Structures are given as C-alpha cells and as structure tokens.
Amino acid sequence: MVIKVFIANQSGSTAIKKKQQDVLGFLEANKIDFKEMDIAAHEENRKWMRENVPGEKRPQNGIPLPPQIFNDEQYCGDFDSFFNAKEDNGVYAFLGLTPPPGSKEAEALAEKV
C-alpha cells in the first residue's frame, strides 16, 4: 500500500501550498511512506486525480484542488478530511493504515476493545 498525495508544486495559491506542506510534513514526521504526485508538471497525474475523487467529494465547480490523498487507488480525502482526522487522532484510520504501537490512535483503539 502506498499513500499518494496529489500536490501542485507550482501553485500560485499560498493557501494550497500551506495545506500541502501540512500534509507532507505530518507524513514525514510520523515516518509514513508516501509518494508525491505532482499535478502541475504531469498531466496524467492531474487526470487520474480528477477522475478518481468521488463525485460527492468534489467542490461545486467540479474540480478538486490539491492536496488530495489516496491509499493506492482508494480515495482517503482532501485536506479538510485529513485535518479533521488529525484533530481526532485518527490519521492512520483515515489513511487505511494500522496505527503503530504506542501511538495515541493505537491506544484509543485498544481502549475500545
């Protein structure tokens, strides 16, 4: 399983750059393997991302903006979904991954069992 983060390396939007950096920084800090998929430099990445974001998750204009997060082919969500999962200590579940032992998320799961 590979986490794919669709980003735009040449975005003119400061807000998009900040959101992308928040996602990538979190994944790096937590040693979660991921692959950056640049939609600005690679048209095939842009097409794939746009075709695979579910209809109910698309903005009103129909064009999803980066960052968009996938686990292989499975859509995980956009920045807002990621942020909410992070706030709820549920990023591993959001990403479809097993939380590492000792993490807040693993401890929360153990308490539920």
Describe the protein.
It is built from 5 helices and 4 strands. By secondary structure, the chain is of the alpha+beta class. It is globular and about 45 Å long.
- Which structural class do you get from the secondary structure elements? alpha+beta
The coarse silhouette is globular
Q: Average pLDDT across residues?
A: 93
How many helices? The count is: 5
DSSP strand content:
15-25%
Termini separation comes to 26 Å
- Percentage of residues in helical conformation: 40-55%
Profile the largest sheet.
4 strands, mixed
The stretches of 5 or more residues where confidence is low (pLDDT under 50) are none
**Lateral strand order in the biggest sheet:** 2-1-3-4
How many individual β-strands?
4
What layout of secondary structure does this protein have?
Layout: E1 3-7, H1 14-29, E2 34-38, H2 43-52, E3 68-71, E4 74-78, H3 79-87, H4 91-95, H5 104-112
Parallel strand pairs: 1-2
Antiparallel strand pairs: 1-3, 3-4
